[in-house]
Amino acid sequence: MSFIGSLLIFLLQVYSFVIILQVLISWLIVFDVINVRNDKAQNLLRLLNRLTDPVYSRLSKFIPPIAGMDLTPMVVLFAIYFLQMLIGRMFIAYGIYGF
Predict the structure, then answer these.
(1) Which of 1, 22, 33, 66 has CB 3.0 to 4.6 Å from 48, enough for a Cys bridge?
(2) Residues 94, 48: Cα–Cα separation, whole Å
(3) Is 81 domain-assigned?
(4) Is 9 helix (H, G, I), strand (E, B) or coil?
(5) Where in the sequence is the domain holding 10, given as residue range(s)?
């Protein structure tokens, strides 16, 4: 696979890890494991929100919460997985290899 395809797949993988991290931290906040009054915790939350809010805000208009749960992260993770498969197949099918 070419460098561009590998880079795109890597960036999508990193973004999926950011989403999973944000979901885990939100659960830890709900169960009062992480104190949100801590400066370091606030900085981490702000960083994660800056990275994910542009995607979440556009999709949350179309995806209503179900039983009080926001399903937007799950939809974004499915979309990332689909894009990774599409990019991988596209570069393999067209024989685009980088050497």
Answers:
(1) 22
(2) 36
(3) yes
(4) helix
(5) 3-93
pLDDT tens-digit series, residues 69-81:
899 999 999 999 9
Question: What are the angstrom distances between the C-alpha of 23 and each of 7, 16, 69, 83, 91?
Answer: 25, 11, 11, 21, 31
Domain assignment of residue 50, yes or no: yes
Let me know if residue 99 belongs to a domain. Answer: no
Q: Total domain count for the chain?
A: 1
Average pLDDT per consecutive 10 residues, the chain (99 residues; last block may be shorter): 84 97 94 92 95 94 89 96 92 62
- Inter-CA distances, 64 with 20, 32, 52, 82, 91, Å: 20, 26, 17, 22, 35
Please tell me the pTM assigned to this model.
Answer: 0.86
Contact 71, 23 (CB under 8 A): no
